[in-house]
């Protein structure tokens, strides 16, 4: 346990923004570029009202998995008070009205029962039940998910999307970012030179080239992979190194969605 704490102190984590760290809000994927509008239609901006005054701001990403449910990371949940959150679907430019957004309050927060607040122990996943359903306006889609237990081969190229930090000083673009990122198989990611025992089989590693990575503000967002003839969300951004997020041999670590399909079905009543 002491070794684990020391390792986390050295490397740090991609965590949700704290309510008081406004300088790092609404930033972007490192090594990314502006996404084409109206492409990643299942991408969500999860927003938080820290002072109960209606001033919502982006803290994490998310994925539309049902007309009533959003998938995100458990560590993005800063409070269990549902009224402090809203989800924005159909979003592209966080600082402009795109005439495509739907702003939907959260009714209920369901965190995985085995999440203990320790990223190294996994289960970093949560579902948000919406107060009203998402409606089809041409700018939103329900994400396809992998089949239970599915794993991707080493080097498989996926795409990370989000409004996360570009660098450790918090450069802030306004538009959704996208970047290709290659899967690092568990046999490699779990070695001492990479993430070691912090990389569990219920996680998915991608990146580690020192160029492209997720970062602060990307947490909870999707890892999008073209498998079985369709774009599927295989990962939920969970953690990465502190300081400069794009470090060699320290890839972005995602919650592996295929490990949690059965739990998600149990929550939604099989409506995914």
List keywords for this structure.
six-stranded antiparallel β-barrel; mainly beta; 3 helices; disordered N terminus; Thrombin, subunit H; 272 residues; 8% helix
Care to describe what's here?
By secondary structure, the protein is mainly beta. The protein has a domain at 41-142 and 261-268: Thrombin, subunit H (Beta Barrel), CATH 2.40.10.10. Helices cover 8% and strands 30% of the residues. The chain has helices at 2-11, 186-189, 261-268, and strands at residues 33-34, 43-48, 57-66, 69-72, 85-89, 102-111, 126-130, 157-162, 177-184, 203-206, 222-227, 230-239, 252-256. It has a six-stranded antiparallel barrel with strand order 8-9-10-13-12-11. A six-stranded antiparallel beta barrel has the order 2-3-4-7-6-5. Strand 11 (222-227) and strand 12 (230-239) form a beta hairpin. The protein is globular and about 45 Å long.
Q: List unreliable stretches of 5+ residues.
A: 1-13, 15-28
- How many helix segments? 3
CATH class of the domain at 41-142 and 261-268: Mainly Beta
Order of strands in the sheet with most strands: 8-9-10-13-12-11
Care to count the β-strands? 13
């Amino acid at each position: 346990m002491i070794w684990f704490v020391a390792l986390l102190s050295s490397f740090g984590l991609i965590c949700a923004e704290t309510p008081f760290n406004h300088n790092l809000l609404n930033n972007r994927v490192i090594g990314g570029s502006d996404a084409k509008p109206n492409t990643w239609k299942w991408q969500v901006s999860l927003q938080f009202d820290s002072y109960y005054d209606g001033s919502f701001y982006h803290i994490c990403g998310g994925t539309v998995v049902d007309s009533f449910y959003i998938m995100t990371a458990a560590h993005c949940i800063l409070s269990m008070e549902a009224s402090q959150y809203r989800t924005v679907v159909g979003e592209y430019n966080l600082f402009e009205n795109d005439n495509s957004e739907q702003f939907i309050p959260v009714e209920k927060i369901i965190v995985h029962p085995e999440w203990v607040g320790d990223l190294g122990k996994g289960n970093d996943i949560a579902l948000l039940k919406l107060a009203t359903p998402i409606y089809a306006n041409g700018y939103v889609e329900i994400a396809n998910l992998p089949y239970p237990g599915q794993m991707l081969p080493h080097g498989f190229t996926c795409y990370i999307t989000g409004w996360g930090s570009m660098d450790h000083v918090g450069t802030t673009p306004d538009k959704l970012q996208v970047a290709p990122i290659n899967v690092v198989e568990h046999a490699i990611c779990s070695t001492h030179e990479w993430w070691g025992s912090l990389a569990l089989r219920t996680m998915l590693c991608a990146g580690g080239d020192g160029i492209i990575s997720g970062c602060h503000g990307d947490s909870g967002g999707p890892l999008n992979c073209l498998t079985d003839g369709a774009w599927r969300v295989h990962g939920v951004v969970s953690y990465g190194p502190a300081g400069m997020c794009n470090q060699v041999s320290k890839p972005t670590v995602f919650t592996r969605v295929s490990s949690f399909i059965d739990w998600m079905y149990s929550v939604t009543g099989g409506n995914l």
